[in-house]
Specification:
Helix content of chain B: 55-70%
Largest sheet of chain A: 6 strands, mixed
Keywords (chain B): Membrane, Transmembrane, Transmembrane helix
InterPro entries (chain A): AAA+_ATPase, ABC_transporter-like_ATP-bd, P-loop_NTPase
CATH topology of the largest domain in chain A: Rossmann fold
Number of helices of chain B: 24
Number of domains of chain A: 2
Number of strands of chain A: 14
Radius of gyration of chain A: 23 Å
Largest sheet of chain B: 4 strands, antiparallel
Shape of chain B: globular
Strand content of chain B: 5-15%
Strand content of chain A: 25-35%
Pfam family, one (chain A): ABC_tran
Transmembrane segments (chain B): 25-44, 50-73, 94-116, 128-149, 161-181, 219-240, 260-280, 286-305, 317-336
Radius of gyration of chain B: 31 Å
Structural class of chain A: alpha/beta
Strand order of the largest sheet of chain B: 2-1-3-4
Oligomer: heterodimer
Number of strands of chain B: 8
Domain ABC transporter (chain A): 2-227
Distance between the termini of chain B: 102 Å
CATH class of the largest domain in chain A: Alpha Beta
């Protein structure tokens, strides 16, 4: 299990991470989502010991992750802004990384190179952005890590390659019981593969939950009533957001849908009442809206 | 449980891999060194000296560039994230870069040695390697350290030069403090203080291995190199531990180092400027230095922080530094003040010197103490050759201390064409310690009581037998005279042509002694004579061809003749002139 406890970090006077707590279990794909500049990459870099925290701890299977711990051999980080050593091809990269990763699998490497249809001898720095992402991913999987951190890994990939990515990743997680943390803005992609999600904003994790549980907690309904809608107040539910489009109201709430429906029927003549499905994106917007992010009205004169 | 991520055999594998990555550098460097130090001078049949020196410069450039490139991963966010995310500590990666470059440097030195051997160049080139090799090795360590301290490769290059020069920069800072001291406390000279410091405690010649150019390598040489490398390695270790990788991209990653650089620059620039200023009042000098210091500090901070807005913290830090600098300088001045009026008791003095030579007495004492010369007589030769008179008789020493008291009382000397010069008074005490004082006398004005007193005391000194034996040793020192074969030339002052050439000095000696005795007794500007010495006695400038000067020459008897003195044969030398007239 990968565990981050009360991690805080300031970049000079700016608080970048503020008491971060993160828990990712073995065999789990963890989606790290958040507003722009909220500290996702910084958090990943702390997990990899690239940055040193001001306070807090990172544990893997109960052992503190430190700069010279042996366990960092089981960690692999694919960064958003990819770097490959100068003049390196995938083959040369394999040769280099074989010297530092003991579990590296040449057989897996060859299989993945074929699967993604990559040229092993081509200079990595001359590859397209998408090819570089695939090459980095192939290398990461070949080292057979126990903790894999992927920062914006599918950014710039076409739909077909994305499918390939997810299929390889899911298979690896199943086979090797590894922890995968994916930081991404592509919430639709994460929606399909993540087991657990951490929503970050301004250096804090606002919410961390299993995705299914999260979806069950926050619900959305659309309804129409006769006459004016008054205040919706009850102990059985809590309205998070209410938007009126024409005569239809769209309401995001927590609590019981049944109780909400009963409440509406008791107070109003309900014309339409439908439950809508919630996506990760909806949850994300709702959660961040709760802290005032993205709720500002743009006034154009 | 913490364990090292890499075992030593893994390190060797990585080292081999790293060396393989450098194969192009090995090839191109071999070609460059081969072509420039071997092939071109061979084809041109040109002196190989220039090309071998050029080869040395090339090695410095190649090694310097390689070190910067190998450590440049510390200066780019994505590069650093890539390497730092690997299970090799940064310390191991830096060690790898240092080891790779050390092997590469060794290879280049071998190439150059082959060239030196091929050209059968003088041994001096191999001697120079004794300095170049430690410079290169220390340079490799310093480049790594500078790369860790900085977040930009170009700045890392600049900081490498800065860090490498730090011992020399500290020298300038100390010199600056001594210059201020010199301006405030009379009797103290910055150059002499610095000489004393660098000859005793702050051995720059050892730090930079310059001492070994003409010396064989010994255990101490290896020890110094080891200490320097261990010292830098320790700083590297500490800095790597404390490095804030998130500051990568800033010119300097460590705030402390950023302020250190700014503060040092804030001293060096005004120090260099003010030390070049002569005849400027101490107050003006301090004000100008302060202004320059503030300006330099602001500019350096603005560059390093990439902002024209200076933070309150930076201002506070500068103010703090100024206070510390003033305390150090003030402390040094206060410390020196208590010795300002100290004139030693003649009983405690072993030797004394008064003159305008600031270094010869120290060297004389140093040579004697370190048995550099074979015996005292040789050491005396050193004094004679450098035109300094070392007083050892009690009476002479008493008079020197008397003159020292006078110098403290009055710092003027208005006598004819005397020009302002440093007057150095030095003592070697019986306990082996030395006291060296330096006075600048004001030579502009009319004759004063002070001038008269100085001349009176000096007159007593120059008429002492000891002084005559040492200043005009070729005439008065019987032992010397008997031992050596001395002759003279009489030359025209106008065209330097030889009018008379003698076989020896035997006949004219008595006349010269008589004239010099008379001249010294009547000497009105005795103080000037004492300071500038017999050898530098100013010629009687006259266009009349009847004025001659005598060159007193020691016959080399097979080796080169040695000019011992030049005496202006003016109106004071009546007996000598009469002898010359009768004999020519």
């Amino acid at each position: 299990m990968l565990k981050v406890n009360d991690l805080s970090k300031k970049f000079r006077e700016f608080q970048v991470l503020n008491n971060i707590n993160l828990n990712a279990d073995m065999g789990q794909i963890y989606g790290l989502v958040g507003s722009n500049g909220c500290g996702k990459t910084t958090l990943l870099k702390h997990i990899m010991n690239i940055y040193k925290q001001d306070s807090g701890y990172i544990f893997f299977n109960g052992e503190a992750v430190k700069d010279n711990s042996e366990i960092v051999e089981d960690f692999y980080y694919v960064q958003d802004n990819l770097f490959f050593p100068n003049q390196y091809s995938l083959n040369k990269l394999l040769e280099f990384e074989s010297l530092i990763y003991k579990n590296i699998s040449k057989e897996k490497f060859d299989r993945l190179v074929d699967f993604f249809n990559l040229d092993k001898d081509k200079n990595l720095n001359k590859m397209s952005k998408g090819q570089k992402k695939q090459a980095a991913f192939v290398m990461a999987i070949s080292t057979q890590p126990k903790v894999l951190l992927l920062d914006e890994i599918v950014d710039g990939l076409d739909a077909v390659v994305k499918r390939k990515f997810w299929s390889v990743l899911i298979q690896e997680v199943i086979d090797n019981e590894m922890v995968v943390i994916i930081s991404s803005h592509d919430l639709k992609e994460l929606d399909n593969i993540c087991d657990k999600v951490g929503i970050m904003h301004e250096g804090k994790i606002l919410k961390e939950e299993n995705l299914e549980k999260m979806k069950n907690e926050i619900k959305r309904v659309q309804f129409a009533v006769e006459g004016e809608l008054g205040e919706l107040d009850s102990n059985d539910f809590k309205v998070l957001k209410l938007v009126k489009i024409g005569s239809i109201y769209i309401c995001t709430l927590t609590g019981s849908i049944e109780k909400f429906k009963e409440y509406m029927n008791s107070k109003y003549k309900v014309i339409i009442f439908d439950e809508l499905s919630m996506s990760l994106e909806d949850i994300f917007i709702t959660e961040l809206g709760g802290v005032g992010y993205g709720t500002e009205d743009l006034e154009i004169k | 449980m913490e364990q090292k991520t890499l075992k030593s055999n893994d390190f060797v594998k990585l080292l081999i891999h790293s060396l393989k990555q450098k194969k192009n550098w090995f090839l191109i460097s071999t070609v460059i060194i081969f072509v420039t130090t071997l092939l071109i001078p061979y084809i041109l049949k040109f002196s190989e000296d220039f090309f071998l020196v050029f080869g040395i410069v090339e090695i410095f450039i190649i090694v310097f560039l390689n070190c910067l490139i190998d450590n440049s991963f510390l200066h780019n966010d994505s590069k650093l994230a890539y390497y730092k995310s690997k299970p090799i500590t940064l310390r191991r990666q830096v060690t790898l870069a240092i080891t790779t470059n050390s092997i590469f440097t060794f290879f280049l030195i071998m190439l150059l040695s082959l060239s030196i051997g091929f050209h059968q160049a003088p041994n001096e080139y191999f001697e120079v390697l004794k300095v170049i090799i430690p410079w290169l090795i220390v340079g490799i360590f310093v480049t790594s350290l500078s790369s860790i301290l900085t977040g930009n490769t170009i700045v890392a290059g600049i900081m490498t030069i800065f860090n490498f020069s730090l011992p020399a920069l500290f020298y300038v800072v100390i010199m600056f403090v001594f210059t201020i001291l010199e301006d405030i406390v009379i009797g103290f000279n910055a150059d002499i203080l610095m000489d004393t410091l660098t000859n005793t405690f702050y051995r720059l010649d050892y730090i930079y291995f310059l001492e070994y150019i003409n010396k064989p390598i010994n255990l101490f040489y290896v020890l110094i190199l080891m200490i320097i490398l261990i010292f830098i390695s320790l700083i590297i270790k500490i800095c790597l531990k404390r490095r804030k990788n998130e500051n990568t991209g800033d010119f300097i990653v460590f705030d402390g180092f950023k302020y250190f650089v700014s503060v040092i620059a804030g001293i060096i620039i005004p120090a260099t400027f003010s030390m070049a200023l002569y005849n400027v009042g101490v107050t003006s000098k301090i004000i100008v230095s302060l202004l320059l210091s503030m300006l330099t500090y602001y500019i350096i901070i603005a560059i390093l922080e990439k902002s024209f807005r200076i933070s309150i913290y930076s201002i506070k830090l500068f103010a703090g530094f100024m206070v510390v600098f003033m305390i150090v300088t003030g402390g040094t001045v206060i410390f020196a003040q208590q010795f300002k009026n100290d004139v030693p008791n003649p009983k405690d003095v072993n030797m004394a010197y008064i003159g305008n030579n600031s270094w010869a007495f120290s060297n004389y004492v140093y040579n004697k103490d370190n048995y550099i010369t074979d015996d005292y007589e040789n050491s005396l030769d050193f004094a004679r050759n450098n035109g300094i008179t070392i007083f050892t008789d009690k009476r002479s020493i008493e008079l020197v201390t008397e003159l020292h008291h006078e110098m403290l009382l009055d710092q003027t000397y208005f006598q004819g064409d005397y020009y302002t010069s440093n007057i150095v008074i030095s003592y070697l005490m019986n306990d082996g310690s030395t006291i060296i004082r330096d006075y600048k006398l004001d030579g502009n004005g009319s004759s004063s009581e002070g001038t008269k007193r100085k001349n009176d005391i000096s007159n007593k000194i120059i008429n002492l037998d000891e002084v005559k034996e040492k200043q005009y040793y070729y005439l008065y020192d019987e032992n010397y005279y008997k031992e050596k074969d001395i002759y003279y030339n009489v030359k025209s002052i106008r065209d330097n042509s030889i009018k008379t050439k003698s076989s020896n000095i035997d006949e004219i000696r008595q006349y010269l002694i008589k004239d010099i005795d008379n001249m010294l007794l009547k000497k009105e500007d005795a103080f000037r004579h004492l300071i500038f010495g017999g050898n530098n006695y100013p010629y009687f400038k006259d266009e009349n061809d009847n004025i001659f000067y005598m060159e007193i020459i020691e016959n080399g008897n097979g080796t080169e003749d040695n000019i011992l003195d030049e005496i202006s044969v003016d109106n004071n030398f009546k007996n000598t002139i009469e002898y010359l007239r009768l004999n020519n």
